[in-house]
């Protein structure tokens, strides 16, 4: 006889909110009149994300295993879920930008129309707004929140697919540069399928070695049986699948092309939220299932962190497209985050876990703000992403240049910004575990990466602006209310978490608990 698992509806409330909003969005898409559908879809998606955020805050301090042991509601999971929900709500506001002028929307009116066809060119000026992106984004947010709470490898795989499939679709929905966007979506889908296969094969090997897919059972089998070749191989394949989602080198090849080709609001969503979800799953897997056998994963993470930092910093120097530059910045930051993972250590004091969670929050806010600024600088083909088009931006729009400078300095890790505080926290945790050579590499690559951030600042302030009649002089748009809200929140948080980060760091330290 099959017994129904115990379910705690209170513990599942954040997931119920966001998945419920996604399902309501599908119904709205099917039955609501097209003319008034956009504000309804935006409201439903925001209610789901913000409702999930409020539920995670109300659950703070709780710790339990629910859904028959498949889901863990603990401090770390709730902190990461709140981060995903908050960043997801801000991303949804970016999706809604330019909705009052549908012809300038970031999303294509009809994705089924062949790129470059007469109908496709006609739809560029149609006064309709794409609304399917909202339920798709809600499903992705729900998958990310489930991903960081999964206490079971099978549930983790399901969550991986739930968050990935909507992203494959919305990556190919750019209104302009359609072929580039569709190419990005196909690359993302194919490489994502390989990563999912790696994860699933690793799951099978771990199950063969331990007889269970529960993280706690895997830990118990690991303690009882010692080293098992199947277990080590399975762990390696699981980590490969997760490192792909985290865009860590050498599993990063999809990142520059997808960041460049996807609609910029979608790129911001992926850069901020997917990073949090992927590292949340990595932290839970290593901390709960293999925490006491760190020698099995520490050398791998050590090597991958160095490769990711070097690849991101060095190749970022060669980029002339801002979105590709931010993609390599993301790869470098993934390496910095892995120094915090190294800082987990065997002692389990939570310092490395808290530092990594804080870094994920600061990086998500900063990169979301940077992409929000990027949506404002435009030319006839959409966003002006080539570096030469940003020359002299400060003379045309001093406020836009100042806000972008803040975010770039934060990404570079300059003091008095959130980026510096996050890097300092993870580096300190890694040094506490004796990983000072890794921190030395991280500091050196941070100095290298600072060059391409400062290059943009020099262009904005110390270069002559491109002439408008040369075809290279973009316009700086006035942000609508959604983007203004995003920029205000992200800029304020970037400053506040750099100047007075103590309260948020304390919250992260109190939340640095995994139950399993």
Describe the protein in words.
The chain is mainly α and 516 residues long. It has one domain. It contains 20 helices and five strands. A hairpin with a 2-residue loop joins strand 3 (377-379) and strand 4 (382-383). The longest helix has 33 residues, at 178-210. The chain starts with 8 loop residues before the first helix and ends in a 5-residue tail after the last helix.
Topology:
Blueprint: H1 9-31, H2 37-58, E1 64-66, E2 71-73, H3 75-96, H4 118-123, H5 133-149, H6 153-170, H7 178-210, H8 215-225, H9 229-245, H10 254-261, H11 264-289, H12 298-316, H13 322-342, H14 351-374, E3 377-379, E4 382-383, H15 393-396, H16 398-412, H17 418-432, H18 436-462, E5 475-476, H19 481-499, H20 502-511
Antiparallel strand pairs: 1-2, 3-4, 3-5
């Amino acid at each position: 006889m099959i017994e129904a698992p115990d379910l705690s509806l209170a513990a599942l409330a954040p997931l119920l909110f966001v998945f419920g909003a996604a399902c309501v969005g599908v119904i709205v898409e099917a039955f609501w009149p097209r003319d008034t559908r956009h504000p309804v879809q935006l409201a439903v998606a925001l209610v789901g994300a913000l409702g999930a955020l409020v539920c995670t805050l109300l659950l703070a301090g709780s710790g339990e295993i629910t859904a028959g042991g498949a889901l863990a509601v603990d401090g770390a999971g709730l902190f990461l879920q709140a981060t995903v929900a908050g960043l997801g709500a801000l991303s949804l506001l970016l999706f809604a930008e330019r909705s009052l002028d549908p012809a300038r929307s970031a999303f294509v009116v009809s994705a089924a129309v062949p790129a470059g066809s007469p109908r496709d060119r006609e739809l560029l000026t149609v006064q309709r707004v794409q609304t399917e992106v909202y339920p798709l984004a809600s499903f992705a947010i729900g998958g990310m929140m489930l991903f960081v709470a999964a206490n079971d490898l099978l549930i983790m795989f399901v969550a991986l697919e739930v968050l990935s499939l909507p992203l494959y679709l919305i990556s190919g929905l750019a209104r302009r540069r359609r072929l580039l966007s569709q190419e990005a979506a196909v690359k993302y889908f194919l490489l994502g399928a390989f990563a999912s296969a790696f994860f699933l094969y690793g799951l099978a090997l771990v199950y063969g070695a331990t007889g269970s897919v529960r993280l706690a059972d895997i830990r118990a089998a690991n303690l009882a049986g010692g080293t098992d070749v199947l277990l080590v191989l399975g762990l390696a394949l699981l980590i490969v699948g997760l490192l792909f989602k985290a865009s860590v080198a050498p599993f990063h090849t999809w990142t520059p092309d997808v960041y460049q080709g996807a609609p910029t609001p979608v790129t911001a969503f992926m850069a901020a939220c997917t990073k949090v979800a992927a590292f949340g799953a990595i932290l839970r897997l290593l901390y709960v299932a293999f925490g006491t056998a760190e020698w099995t994963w520490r050398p791998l993470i050590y090597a991958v962190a160095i490769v990711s930092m070097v690849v991101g910093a060095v190749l970022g120097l060669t980029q002339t497209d801002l979105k590709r530059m931010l993609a390599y910045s993301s790869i470098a930051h993934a390496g910095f985050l892995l120094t915090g993972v190294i800082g987990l250590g065997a002692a389990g004091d939570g310092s490395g876990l808290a530092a990594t969670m804080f870094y994920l929050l600061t990086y998500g806010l900063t990169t979301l703000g940077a992409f929000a600024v990027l949506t404002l600088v435009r030319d006839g083909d959409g966003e002006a992403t080539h570096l030469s088009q940003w020359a002299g931006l400060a003379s045309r729009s001093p406020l836009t240049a100042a806000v972008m400078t803040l975010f770039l300095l934060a990404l570079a890790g300059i003091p008095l910004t959130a980026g510096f505080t996050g890097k300092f926290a993870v580096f300190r945790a890694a040094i506490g575990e004796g990983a000072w050579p890794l921190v030395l590499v991280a500091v050196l690559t941070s100095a290298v990466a600072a060059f391409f951030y400062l290059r943009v600042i020099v262009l904005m302030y110390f270069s002559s602006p491109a002439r408008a009649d040369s075809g290279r002089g973009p316009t700086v748009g006035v942000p609508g209310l959604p983007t203004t809200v995003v920029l205000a929140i992200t800029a304020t948080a970037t400053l506040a978490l750099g100047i007075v980060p103590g309260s948020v760091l304390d919250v992260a330290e109190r939340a640095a608990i995994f139950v399993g």
